Amino acid sequence: MAEHPVQVFIYALIVSCGIFGNALVLWIAADSTRENRYLASSDLILMNIAAANLMISLTRNTLLLTFDAGQSVSFSDVGCRLMMFIWTWLRSASIWVTLSLSLYHFITIRISRTMLGKLSERRKVVMALVVEWVLSLVYASFALPYSSNSKNNSTNNFMVISSTLRPLLGCVWTFPNEVSGLTYAMVSVVIHEAIPISLMVFSNSATLLFLYKHHRKTRDVQFSSSHGNTEWKAAKTILYLILLFIFSWGTHVISVNYYNFKGSPSTRYMLIIARFSASGFVGFYPLVVVSGHSKLRKKMRNILKCGWLNFVQQK
Fold first, then answer.
1. Measured between alpha carbons, how far is 57 from 51 in angstroms, rounded to an integer?
2. Long-range contact list for 172-181, CB < 8 A, 24+ apart?
3. Tens digit of pLDDT for each residue in 150-171?
4. Helix 269-292 with 5-16: angle, nearest 10 deg
5. Transmembrane ranges (predicted)?
6. Residue 188: closest CA among 88, 313, 259
7. Please, which residues have CB within 8 angstroms of residue 126's CB and are 6 or more apart in sequence?
8. Are 59 and 89 in contact (CB under 8 A)?
9. Which of 184, 213, 173 is nearest to 80 (CA)?
10. 230-266 pLDDT per residue, tens
11. Is the dihedral angle over the CA atoms 154, 190, 128, 279 positive or is it negative?
12. Are the CB atoms for 297 and 291 separated by under 8 Å?
């Protein structure tokens, strides 16, 4: 049965923003790299987050939108294993790559870097990103033997305590017993959600505190103050991203589990909240990045300006 048209319309806007916004961030960053013949480590991390969000939008959110619109969406056992593997992989990678952005800024503001140091730093960032994607791939591989389209899953109630393990579109986790299912879910919550999110909060808070103290010491020095203002803007942008991520994640987990353990027809609205919050970070990430990244914002402004001029000339 189709959801309310207003709900479908709003969700379609979020999904569209997630697809076109993240694709635009990737394209602008890649085009800027081509022009400058240099890719900053921070931009590389931003591109990885945008890539993960874009793939989540294409492989997950578009299917949910189709389902909400009243179309039938179902998978075979093999299809469920494959899709659960992809969804878990992308969700886990998104969490760890987002943490990388916060940790990267936390580390780099404390050290001075030469050009040679920046090249060495970028190699380390690339290696860290590769490790995060590969480990997330290994973690998600449990979905291949332990998921199916069967709805008779006794461990279903335990699986939804983790946003990376939530059953979706008829695809559920089918562990041999409740103990193994609960163990895997709890390990997932601690390692892939609680730890990285705690580190995000700690590293970003420490970065803001460091910049505040540095600003007080160097506010009379023009160059240091200018550099500090740039770092301060970057820290605030990262803080907004982290807050958006935590809000989306927390709202999703709380809503799903509230419905799961106290579910009734009167509390179905919690699933609607969970649906929107699960896609919130993916959809609004491009807006936060562009608003806080001066180079991306300038590039996007030029693109929109050129597009508008071409449109006017054609008229």
1. 10
2. 172/80, 172/147, 172/148, 173/84, 173/143, 173/146, 173/147, 174/146, 174/147, 174/148, 174/150, 175/146, 178/154, 180/155, 181/154, 181/155
3. 654 444 444 445 555 556 777 7
4. 30
5. 6-30, 42-64, 84-104, 125-146, 194-212, 238-259, 271-291
6. 88
7. 44
8. no
9. 173
10. 666 777 788 888 888 888 887 877 777 776 666 666 6
11. positive
12. yes
- CATH class of residue range 5-314: mainly alpha
Q: How far apart are CA 182 and CA 65, in angstroms?
A: 30
**What pLDDT, on the 0 to 100 scale, is given for residue 32?**
78
Q: What is the pTM of this model?
A: 0.83
pLDDT at 155: 45
Q: Strands 147-148 and 172-173: what pairing?
A: antiparallel
Q: Where do the structural domains in the chain lie, given as residue ranges?
A: 5-314
CB count within 10 Å of CB 220 equals 7
8-state DSSP, 190: I
Which amino acid appears at position 166 of this protein?
R
Q: Check whether 48 has a pLDDT greater than 90.
A: yes
Q: Enter the tokens of residue 232.
A: 């301060």
In whole angstroms, what is the distance from residue 143 CA to residue 172 CA?
A: 9
Specify the range with the lowest mean pLDDT, choosing from 31-35, 152-156, 205-209, 213-217.
152-156
Identify the DSSP state of 61: I
Measured CA to CA in angstroms, residue 57 lies from 62, 74, 197, 280, 310 at distances of: 6, 18, 22, 11, 30
- Percent of the chain at pLDDT > 70 equals 75
